[in-house]
Structures
1.
Amino acid sequence: NGVPAMFFGQPCWCTAGPLLAALRARAPIHVLAMSRDSTGRYALEIFPEISMARSGDLRTDLINNSQRCQDAIEALVRRYPGQWLWLHRRWKARPELERRWRERTKPDASRRGNP
């Protein structure tokens, strides 16, 4: 379960919880990154707010905003490729994932307002 998005050109699933909470509370979403520099010191970077789409269709907004977040994370991974760590199976069950991803990204009026 989750929200479909593309990450490094591959379909993946993203958790909907943080986006759903942000949309409902009209709260900002920021990407944060901890990186290590050449001296071994760490720096915390807080990036500008990700502009949230608010079309009035919850499902569409979750998909669009999930992609915006994945794009921001992908940009960070490209910036610091040697420092990327992911703690879950991002691309699990590929054939099944791709089928479900295609189904979830199709417009469907019967699911309006449901993630």
2.
Amino acid sequence: MSWYSRNPDDLASLISLAPLPYNLAALEYIPPPPQTLPTTVNPDGKSLYNPPGPQSKSYTDFPKPIDSSNNAFDFHVYYMPTNEAEFSFAKQLHERIRREFPELRIYKFWDKAVGPHPTAMFEVNTFTPHQTGAFFSWLVVNRGPCS
């Protein structure tokens, strides 16, 4: 029987078998007392005031278990090779990424499905949180019809 065919009570017990880690336990910096965060609202009336503190190490180092020794994240850019306009766009996007992000590992442009991938694609690897954030935000804006 698959997990989704169980009744909700069974599903809750199944989920509880895999306890989640306590997220705050990994914090290396906990501000001095009081350790409760303020509930003060900023002048915009919606966002909460956060007291200043040291910048998170996650801006420069990936949290464990992410291993960036070979690459930390793979971005697979998929396109439909039978659609001439999409093929052309993907080819231009591949070249633009190579020119704009020469520090990233960029694999060849596949014009057919390879390996486990359902359609033609190319892959881009990032190695640092900074690269991952910069490339992800850039790709969201510039990916066009590719997925």
